[in-house]
Amino acid sequence: MFSYLLRRLILVLPVAFGVSVICFLLVQIAPGDPLTAIMPVDATAEEQAAMRAAYGLDKPLPVQYAIWVGNLAQGDMGRSIATGRPVAGEVFGAVQNSLLLAVSAAVIAFPIGIFLGFLAGYFRDSALDKAVTAVSIAGVSVPNYWLGIVLVIIFSVNLGWLPSMGAGPGGSRDWSWNWEHMRHLVLPAVTLAVVPIGIVSRTVRALSGDILSMDFVQALYAKGMTRFDVLIHVGRNAAATALSVMGLQLGYLLGGSILIETVFNWPGSGFLLSNAIFQRDLPLLQGTILVLALFFVAMNLIVDVAQAAIDPRIKRS
Amino acid sequence: MSATELYDRLPDRGGPAQPLLTVRGLKKYFPIRGGILGRTRAMVQAVDGVSFEVRKGETLGIVGESGCGKSTTARLAVGLIDRDEGDIIFDGDALGDTLSLRELRRGIQMVFQDSYASLNPRLTIEESVAFGARVQGLSDPMGRAHGLLARVGLDPARFAQRYPHELSGGQRQRVNIARALAMSPRLVVLDEAVSALDKSVEAQVLNLLSDLRAEFGLTYIFISHDLNVVRYISDRVLVMYLGEVVEVAPVAAIWARQAHPYTRSLFSAMPSMDPDNRTEEPPLTGDPPNPIDPPEGCRFHTRCPFAATLCGRKAPQLRKIGADGHLAACHLHDPTSGHPKAGKIA
Amino acid sequence: MTLTEPLTSAPAPEARKGYWAGVAGRLARDPVSMLCLAVVAALILAAIFAPWLGLADPYKGSMIARLKPIGTPGHILGTDEQGRDMLARLIHGGRLTLFIGLMPVVFAFFIGSILGVVAGYVGGRLNTLIMRVVDVFFAFPSVLLAIAISGALGAGIVNSLVSLTIVFVPPITRVAEAVTSGVRSLDYIDAARATGASALTVIRVHVIGNVLSPIFVYATSLTSVCMILAAGLSFLGIGVRPPEPEWGLMLNTLRSAIYVDPWLSALPGVMIFVTSLCLNLLSDGVRSAMNVRD
């Protein structure tokens, strides 16, 4: 197990390197001069050159990259062009809110997805199975930013039950653990949960259906085991795969919440990202993407290791 | 089409005395990657210093257990796998020296064991047969394909347009033979080419191969684990064990006397049809050793009933043991080797 | 393959062509797939022929006719926040949405197939190089990658096409590589190589035909996601620029009307949902008609 862990950790390094290169290049592919926003309009050629040198933009790209990574290693992700505040602080504050949203959505989605998927797999080809399949296809097909709007229309505009904007009263940007803030969490979390419900139920349906039709299930019945005992056996077999799908979904929830956060003005990383895009705040854009991508990489790693811990077959391959 | 029109054989160059194919010191180690950085952890010594000659017009049978390097040797000779070391000399021209890989491929063709996997499922059989001739720029590839299909017993009017899955295994193997012949090769490597066929079909295909050899003046390397089939079709037999050649002899000589203990156990594993001639040698026990870490000295000494201390230390060389070109790599047959039973057995 | 028969009893040569006919036949017997095919075809045809359908001008607004409700005479589906006819904008909107939603998968299908087939066929260091780069892109959830690239490049149709193509090249490359490696190990490839044919010839004649259909089936399963992402980029304001009609962009600009006429503001999303649902169901139908297992 330890050598597997070590091997996986070492395999992550080139991926993390690649991720950092892509994030670095994001600023390079952006049209226009990154300094336009802060450069005085009447700057002379010398002043422009001095500014360029001050930001290190006069050096060749690999050197710029090395400096950037060196700063990253010390926790310095540069300063936001729009606010002048350090990017790191802004990003970590926002990622906490996104994580809250993603975990809430997962808490809603995973039990529902597992339950529906299992029902469908157990009663394969029944009307129930067809209904669950329809729900899961609708779930993966729905543009969730639109679903968010529809939920707002129903529960905020028409019924007036739930708030639709921000993380707290008056569209507050700060989260705290109280009833009023929780009410703000409901709609975005439910909206975000729809796609993973579709995917998890699909996966669990396929898994449980396949496993129930395997020979060893017949053998368990033949041994005189009860229906419940058999279910436990089947569950353990499906756990490793289901776990990996759900782990990845949690990663997707964090990265995929951007559109939902925009719909609900949720003060998370997606909200930060869309602000960064509109203010052409490239350091902020770069920092947010980097943190989200690295989080996703870490999530992948955790999933792989957890899966290997459950299913010893994986370690061998 | 007559045989001469069907066949644009490369001209003979060195005369009948020069071997058609000479392989010298052929080596191929496959790396096994693994570990934390995916470094090469070990090498499978698939083929380790194999040397042999194939004379013009003969059939050389290669036998041995699965995993002994027969197929790798064949693929190396055809140039499908790059060799690590060794010379491949085709009618006097060394590969990489005066002979290019493309020229070698024009001279040597191969027929594989799995008749289905060796035909592209999306091409009609005429397209499959014509492909090589087209690639090599030979004249009238389609006419050649039809002529060869007819020659291997498949009426082009009925079969040319069919797809591989519409044929039986024996029919597909006939297509594969036609496909190899479409390149007008001088040497055809038959890698377990009849092993997957039913016995009755196998006999038909073997007879076809014999006829084609005579008609087109072919030379064969015939790889098989079935000694009876090898005896039927081959002129000489080469025995391989763990990537090495242990014995080479004309068919009659080796059936009369198996010099190497491994050859002997291989032959004794073959059921005899004659009740008076029952197998008396003990059959070979255990699996062959791991080719990643083959035994020191003679590779067979771990399973050899005659193994002495010497055998675990010094690898025997292939040496002449009979007037008829009988070669064996065993200390027993070298009176000067120092093996306690040298020269006393067989 | 040890089954053998006498030389005379082989099935008819038509059996092979029967495969695609069989797939089409099974698909045609599936009412859900047929319905979805009809909807997608109707949407695409309507989008292509939108200018000739006698619809109102999708760009012409009216200050006095803003946000007319659904069912208004002369504006069957009402008008938007600038008084433009919704029906005309929805149908014209299909042109850009479907174009930006489908073309990246088409581009990625070609690019990813080439990269994957080359990586799978050549193997070795080139394979490692291509597949490690692909791995890096897999470190980004697709939404994040699309928004990151589009956010950096800025809004615009071409930029959206570029960023979405980049998003879908890695998954298609991965599938193409896996399928090609499988085919590469078969004897008929060795037999073709043994003729002295160049790698390019072997790939063209013997590899492409055997790997393209699984890659294609996989690519069709990506169209729905691509549609949603394309409209999502416009919804965020980093896709199509106003005043072009595009479903995601319309959904965005109509958000201001959510308290005035909520259901009107949700209409463009219905279009996105219906299209994406039909693409998904159709792709599932094709998969099961071809007997591809999940």
Folded structure, characterized:
- The complex is a heterotrimer of chains A (317), B (346) and C (294).
- Chain A has a single domain, classed as MetI-like (MetI-like fold, Orthogonal Bundle).
- Helices cover 76% and strands 0% of the residues of chain A.
- Chain A contains 13 helices and no strands.
- In chain A, helix 4 runs parallel beside helix 12.
- Chain B is α/β, with parallel strands linked by helices and 346 residues long.
- Chain B folds into two domains: 232 residues, Rossmann fold (3-Layer(aba) Sandwich); 94 residues, no CATH class.
- Helices cover 28% and strands 21% of the residues of chain B.
- Chain C has one domain: MetI-like (MetI-like fold), CATH 1.10.3720.10.
- Chain C contains eleven helices and no strands.
- The longest helix of chain C is centred in the middle third of the chain and has 37 residues.
- Chain C starts with 17 loop residues before the first helix and ends in a 5-residue tail after the last helix.
- Chains in contact: A-B, A-C, B-C.
- The interface between A and C is large, with 50 and 46 residues.
